[in-house]
Amino acid sequence: MTALINSQDFITSIAESLQYISYTHPRDFIQAMARAYEREKSQAAKDAMAQILINSRMAAMGQRPICQDTGIVTVFLQIGIECQFDTKQSIQEMVDEGVRQAYSHPDNPLRASVVADPAGQRVNTRDNTPAVIYTELVAGSTIDIRIAAKGGGSENKSKFVALNPSDSIVDWVIRTVPKMGAGWCPPGILGIGIGGTVDKAMVLAKESLMEPINIQDLLQNGPKNRKEELRLEIYEKVNNLGIGAQGLGGLTTALDVKILDCPTHAASLPVAMIPNCAATRHIHFTLDGTGPAHFTPPRIEDWPQIEWEVGESVKRVQLNGITKKEIASWKTGETLLLNGTILTGRDAAHRRIQSFLQDGKPFPEGVDFKGKFIYYVGPVDPVNGEAVGPAGPTTSTRMDKYTDMMLNQTGLIGMIGKSERGDATIESIREHGAVYLMAVGGAAYLVSKAIKKARVVAFEDLGMEAIYEFKVEDMPVTVAVDSRGESIHKTGPALWSQKIRDYRKLD
């Protein structure tokens, strides 16, 4: 029997699902993160996970994005051959209309991050379209829809390898995960695709991230096949690396490992790995022609009752007028509460700054980095009296190529972002007596509450990549690279990988 799918129901379901996942973590993710928080012994990692869980609860209750990076939309459609749409629009056009409505919602606008002409002008499409769609015709009279909003920080850490059939998949994963750094905001989920062709393996890895978190059940019941054995082996060995939450060192790096596979050529062993970050956003629903999908509002009881408290060792810092002498007293791993004025800037803004410097042109009024800190961020637009929308950090390593220029030529003395810095950047920080601070990726709504005033001071045409001036009160950060060039992203995992080995010997 043919099922008639109302095109407006389809579009509305896409739009409402994207709104829903922008502020609601899947329940299994909350439970897995809470379990990791309870067992964590590294205080730095525990504090990071506390902020992630508190941010998650705040975002759900306030219906504002979990992360400022509200992702590029990926949709997996299984369309029953007995379904029919009452429209002349294509699937792409209908999905994109749903995306457009979701990302321009007046009560909860989402950040438009998609740029056209990717190898050229990289112009923001302003509505986060087009979506990436995978469509399959299947038996039946329903449409099965799995939808995700994938952040750039974790997507950029995706890896692929064409192994020889006799090579070890586990060995490749364990060699590769440390090279991914902390830009994917661990702890999260590792999705692995095995087999098929190069492109099929990548799609399998992405698709695997839609599956429920169930590694604890697998640990309890034991594996039933080789794929489940692989999941457990990789899960254990990845967590033994000691990378920990936000790369600070700790017991939990992966909350789960998912694997999908496919038959492949006898000469091939294609393997893809894609991580999901601490802002995991995905949902699964079905349309059968009886109306749009409905999404159950979250319950406050779904979140653990965690409070992140400022300890006695936390320093409250006034940035206005700060000196390099004071910065030199900070040590890696310390928690600071920032107060005062900071400027923002990320990829596109740094490119503009570079061109101004090369051409000898003065910066726009309001852009003066001398003695200042820059925050690598592209915030969500504000609503309902907010100074700014969710405003968590972006991956700092992308700005490494500009750091020496900024420290040498602009008078900048500090940077705020997420993840590690490269060796050359660390050396530049040391040479200039500067500092790099880390805000928690995946705690964007929580961080935004510390931003009391915000205004665009330059490059407004860049949208979310414009330069803002923020006035902050008690913005929580961790000293990640101090003025002596010590990096917590090096010392933390090294310390905790050894501690984990010691724990295992005691067992």
Topology summary:
Layout: E1 3-5, H1 7-23, H2 27-39, H3 43-62, E2 72-80, E3 83-85, H4 91-103, E4 115-116, E5 123-124, E6 132-138, E7 143-150, H5 152-155, E8 159-163, H6 169-176, E9 188-195, H7 198-208, H8 215-221, H9 226-239, E10 254-262, E11 269-276, E12 282-287, E13 315-318, H10 324-327, E14 335-344, H11 347-359, E15 373-375, H12 400-409, E16 414-417, H13 423-432, E17 435-438, H14 444-448, E18 451-458, E19 467-481, H15 488-506
Could you explain the architecture of this structure?
This protein has 507 residues and is α/β, with parallel strands linked by helices. The chain has 3 domains: 1-24 and 66-150, Dihydrodipicolinate Reductase, domain 2 (2-Layer Sandwich); 152-287, 2-Layer Sandwich (60s Ribosomal Protein L30, Chain: A); 315-492, Fe-S hydro-lyase, tartrate dehydratase beta-type, catalytic domain (fumarase, Alpha-Beta Barrel). It is built from 15 helices and 19 strands. The strands form 5 sheets. A 5-stranded mixed β-barrel has the order 14-15-16-17-19. The N and C termini lie far apart (60 Å).
Quick overview:
33% of the residues lie in helices and 23% in strands. It is of the alpha/beta class.
Model regions low in confidence, pLDDT < 50 over at least 5 residues: none
Strand order of the largest sheet: 14-15-16-17-19
How would you sum up the major sheet? 5 strands, mixed, barrel
Q: What do we call the CATH topology of the largest domain? A: fumarase
Under the CATH scheme, which class of the largest domain? Alpha Beta
Please give the domain count.
Answer: 3
How many DSSP E strands? 19
Work out the strand percent. Answer: 15-25%
Q: Give the overall silhouette.
A: globular
How far is the N terminus from the C terminus? 60 Å
Helix amount, in percent? Answer: 25-40%
Number of helices: 15
Named at the architecture level, the CATH assignment of the largest domain is Alpha-Beta Barrel
What is the overall pLDDT average? 95
The value of Rg in angstroms is: 23 Å
Find the structural class using helix and strand composition.
alpha/beta
